[in-house]
Amino acid sequence: MRKTVALSSEMARRLATPNPRTYIGSGKVSEMKSAIHALDVETVIFDDELSPGQLRNLEKVFGKDVRVCDRTALILDIFNQRAATHEAALQVALAQMEYQLPRLTRMWSHLERQAGGRVKGMGEKQIEVDKRILRDQIGVLKKELESVRRHRKLYRNRRVSVPIPVVSLVGYTNAGKSTLLNQLTGANVLAEDRLFATLDPTTRRVQMKNGKEFLLTDTVGFIQKLPTTLVAAFRATLEEISESSLLVHVVDISHPLAEQQIDAVDKVLSELDVSLIPMLIVWNKVDKVSDPEKMKAEAKSRGNVVCLSALNGDGLDDFCNAIQEKLKDSMVWVEALVPFDKGELLSSIHRIGMVETTDYTENGTLVKAYVPLRLARLLTPMRQLYVSP
């Protein structure tokens, strides 16, 4: 039975800079080669991105039967296995092709050997043909994804016409975002204890106990050193985040590398330019830490953190209350006279806004409330009807 081994701390070495030819030093390459042959290894995985030249040189040293896989290729493979919808498959295929394009030279080295030195450039010609085919396929995929992007934009525009606040769940992969969505909405979204279980955004309506509503969107999980090709390919999906009224950063607080995961998510969010959107931090899986009460006390002292367990529902009420308070910060104050024949609009104010007072007059209902900006725009003509005494 063949084995797959990853480069672990036992086979790591500190270098000032990566070796331009083989990423690691020649001594470590020789050590790994011996281990590969001794263990009959089939795949060697590097926890970093390797250049095309480094991949080619390492495969030459390790032998043609050994696959050298870098971090990006591994993540793309996982994404490919998780892609359950047409959109996700398109996005992953695009990222894979763009990753493969500069690495095609490894696939055609056998043609140069077959030429025997008598016909120059035989392999090079085949490489150029293959690159042209791949570029054409990339162009087709980009057009399809642009169509998907336009469709998503139309969908978001329709959603804007219904002025309900949008809350997006973001966080490291496997932090529990889908479980939280399911717990709040009964959405039955796939939630498994594995990396990248969710690739497509899912939006569901959440109704709190006090009758208030908001839309909750589950997004693709992030990871340290997320490949730029994936960020670009998933642009249509990640644009859902930029349309949010509030971001909820879900953290697996029980994970030993929670701080590093938080930094990784913050880095991706900075690349998406969403720093102006308010954020709430959620420490999930608090039931798995050694001292849950101490963790809850620390979260309370920070002020912007809510502790919960999405799996068993502990802390969901605190979470919903924190969402309501955060959404209030993004709302605007209005005083409007709503005509009696606009009962549906008045209902929306009570459902998604925060009403301070209502007074019934001869001409309609005078409402003083905090409402989302989208709803405030709909109320503009009615605000003009009201003149403060």
From TrEMBL:
Binding site for GTP: 171-178, 196-200, 218-221, 284-287, 309-311
Keyword Oxidoreductase: no
Keyword entries, A-Z: Cytoplasm, GTP-binding, Magnesium, Metal-binding, Nucleotide-binding
InterPro entries according to UniProt: G_HFLX_dom, GTP-bd, GTP-bd_M, GTPase_HflX, GTPase_HflX_N, GTPase_HflX_N_sf, HflX_C, P-loop_NTPase
Limits of the Hflx-type G domain: 165-331
Subcellular location: Cytoplasm
GO molecular function: GTP binding; metal ion binding; ribosome binding
Gene Ontology annotations for the cellular component aspect, listed alphabetically: cytoplasm
Nucleotide-binding recorded as keyword: yes
Superkingdom per UniProt: Eukaryota
Regions crossing the membrane: none
Binding site for Mg(2+): S178, T198
Cofactor: Mg(2+)
SUPFAM superfamilies in the cross-refs: P-loop containing nucleoside triphosphate hydrolases
Pfam families registered for this protein in UniProt: GTP-bdg_M (PF16360), GTP-bdg_N (PF13167), HflX_C (PF19275), MMR_HSR1 (PF01926)
Protein name: Uncharacterized protein isoform X2
Organism: Spinacia oleracea (Spinach)
Encoding gene (name): LOC110790580
